[in-house]
Specification:
The protein has 137 residues and is an all-alpha fold. The protein contains four helices and no strands.
Length: 137
């Protein structure tokens, strides 16, 4: 289960990087996103927790030290809470129909809904896999 959790975590980070790329394009010439309502601090902390947690998980796999599994699990829970908040804010005032409006283009409105849903689903799978592996440690 620990190896499955590692694989799920890596896929999760790749999907998160794809979504994060939408928020980094605000006000860049190659992007038509001009604003975001997502807090910049959370857009930094959420992926940071995911990456740091992955390294803690790899350290757990290398050392078989149970405390590292629980630290990684705690990081996932905090990151998941932040991710849930970001998802809520993303869908809070999402326009129906065409992406954005002619005058205001928000980065979070340009994120594909299936990608957000898959990221959330894989987050739940990853948390459960890490929990099971931590309980077995």
């Amino acid at each position: 289960m620990a190896t499955f959790a590692l694989g799920a975590w890596i896929v999760q980070i790749l999907g998160g990087a794809y979504l994060w790329s939408f928020t980094t394009g605000v006000n860049r010439p190659e992007s038509n996103a001009r604003a975001t309502r997502l807090p910049r601090s959370l857009l930094f902390v959420h992926p940071l927790l995911g990456v740091v947690g992955l390294f803690v998980w790899i350290a757990f796999l290398a050392s078989d030290e149970p405390v590292l599994a629980w630290v990684a699990f705690a990081g996932l829970l905090v990151g998941g809470g932040i991710g849930s908040f970001l998802a809520f804010r993303t869908f809070q005032d999402r326009p129906r129909g065409p992406v954005g409006s002619p005058d205001v283009r928000r980065a979070e409105h340009q994120m594909p809904v299936p990608a957000i849903g898959l990221h959330g689903f894989l987050a739940v799978v990853t948390v459960l896999a890490v929990l099971v592996a931590a309980l077995q440690a």
